[in-house]
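example protein:
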Amino acid sequence: MPHLTRNTQLGGQIRCADEQHVHPIHGGDFVGVGDRELAFQHHHGQNFQALRQDCPLLDRATTALIRDLHERGLDRDTTVLVWGEFGRTPWIIPHANPGRDHWAPVMSTLIMGGGMRMGQVIGSTNRFGEDPKEKPFSVQCVLSTLYHRLGID
């Protein structure tokens, strides 16, 4: 994948996973990628500094993977899921080391490929990002969608 180098732990893992994952999703491989250096779920402190460093890494790695899958025609048969374990408070927790805490009512998920219709934004929040407003999707709904695409009832 020429768009992604192994200069970061995340980039190396995604590139390695992409090189190994050449089977369609139905009956194909499952590849999980995580990065201890890119700890989005741990931005309880140093929020601004950490996001300035981590967001570009995730953006470049995800963009390169999606571009590569599309260029090789694997985007219809491969599902990419970028998802954390919790949403984050829509406000900064004011303490000596400003950060954001866990926030279960709202979270973001990026799902690409797998034969699903792309370019959608599903759901919205109130103007403060605190609570679901339209089309709330639960974790169970996201997993159900993925299972359905995999042919699992």
The longest strand covers residues 79-83. The CA atoms of residues 87 and 104 lie 6 Å apart.
